[in-house]
Amino acid sequence: MSVEQDQVQRADFDQVMVPNYAPAGFIPVRGAGSRVWDQTGRELIDFAGGIAVNVLGHAHPALVGALTEQANKLWHVSNVFTNEPALRLAKKLVDATFAERVFFCNSGAEANEASFKLARRVAHDRFGPEKYEIIATLNSFHGRTLFTVNVGGQSKYSDGFGPKISGITHVPYNDLEALKAAISDKTCAVVIEPIQGEGGVLPAELAYLQGARELCDAHNALLVFDEVQTGMGRSGELFAYMHYGVVPDILSSAKSLGGGFPIGAMLTTEALAKHLVVGTHGTTYGGNPLACAVGEAVIDVINTPKVLAGVKAKHDRFKARLEQIGQQYGLYSEVRGLGLLIGCVLNDNWKGKAKDIFNAAEQEGLMILQAGPDVVRFAPSLVIEDADIDAGLDRFERAVAKLAQA
Ligand SMILES: *Cc1c(COP(=O)(O)O)cnc(C)c1O
């Protein structure tokens, strides 16, 4: 151990951390709204939002207030006891959605794990042990536990970890005919992201989701929407299913739900929830008072006509300027997404260069995201100031201009 333990640098990452991440070269130390400062005092504009998590930016007073108030009261009691913030947040989610029951956990993967286990348990109870097949989509992402990487449609995440979980099929996204051909009376669930996030910010077509709903009903299968990335206002509606008007049986939420504090939730109906009887599933931290207190503050702020309308207006502001930059530099084939989940699909000239654009943006003081090698992704705070959008896009344009010159 080093003597100067307090003075950590980016280089320490490679000495003490498991190398499964490759973080950028600077270390953020402080944030306010959509601005972030690193160890050297350099200021950056945040269009990444901690990967669609910091839904109210950094250090939002409502979230800081809720967290500190709860921190002085009660941190944790486990599920041997219930607690007030968990019950209040569950009520708010039930009031605001199709759901009648909520299961809390700590991440998106755990919310999906609960969703998939519930779907299999319901089918087992109602129709017997043969009905356990799950249909998911190619290129989808559902988390990194063993079950969720197997349901996810990217073999790079599921290969090399021993035998795969059986009974999972993948079909092309937005291809209703393929889903129709794959579904059978052995199918217990169809799992869809209303917008494929990690897979490239690819929105579902309305007819696809409607068709999936009908196919599920015809085959006694449950429709599961993974809204870990698209939920909590990101799309301009509280959940993206509301944008489409297609209601799932089970919905998973996380990321923005906690605005930066770890929390996940599975939402479902009373009729399905009752299959998870006492002892069938659980997690020590699920419904943690700190996480739920923050979640309450998030939904209180987000689920208002003003904030949701603001998301749509900010989408238009982003899109107009991004399209103009794209045209000027011949960057992309398409700007797509809903609300403040926006993807710029790089054209043939720029294919594979999303990482270079990420690096160039960082050099200009802008944090962005990729969604694979060919898509530049933006997932900023839902209450980002218009001035920050404009200043950030100025920096983005400078980054792109430099790359185009080189
Ligand atoms: C991020 C994400 C997950 C995984 O969430 P974690 O909190 O990282 O476990 C699952 N599904 C989707 C759609 C996601 O974007």
Topology:
Layout: H1 10-16, E1 28-32, E2 35-38, E3 43-46, H2 49-52, H3 61-71, H4 84-96, E4 101-105, H5 108-127, E5 133-137, H6 146-151, H7 155-158, E6 168-171, H8 176-182, E7 187-192, E8 195-196, E9 202-203, H9 206-218, E10 222-226, H10 240-244, E11 250-253, E12 264-268, H11 270-273, H12 289-302, H13 305-329, E13 332-338, E14 341-346, H14 354-363, E15 366-367, E16 369-370, E17 375-378, H15 386-405
Parallel strand pairs: 3-15, 5-6, 5-7, 7-10, 10-11
Antiparallel strand pairs: 1-2, 2-3, 4-12, 8-9, 11-12, 13-14, 14-17, 16-17
Helix pairs in contact: 3-12, 4-12, 13-15, 14-15
The site of pyridoxal-5'-phosphate has 15 residues, from helix 5.
Report on the structure:
40% of the residues lie in helices and 18% in strands. The chain has two domains: 3-59 and 305-405, Aspartate Aminotransferase, domain 1; 74-302, Aspartate Aminotransferase, domain 2 (3-Layer(aba) Sandwich). The protein has 15 helices and 17 strands. The protein starts with 9 loop residues before the first helix and ends with a helix. The protein has helices at 10-16, 49-52, 61-71, 84-96, 108-127, 146-151, 155-158, 176-182, 206-218, 240-244, 270-273, 289-302, 305-329, 354-363, 386-405, and strands spanning 28-32, 35-38, 43-46, 101-105, 133-137, 168-171, 187-192, 195-196, 202-203, 222-226, 250-253, 264-268, 332-338, 341-346, 366-367, 369-370, 375-378. The strands form four sheets. The protein has a seven-stranded mixed β-sheet, sandwiched between helices. A four-stranded mixed β-sheet has the order 1-2-3-15. A four-stranded antiparallel β-sheet has the order 13-14-17-16. With 406 residues, the protein is α/β, with parallel strands linked by helices. Bound molecules: pyridoxal-5'-phosphate (PLP).
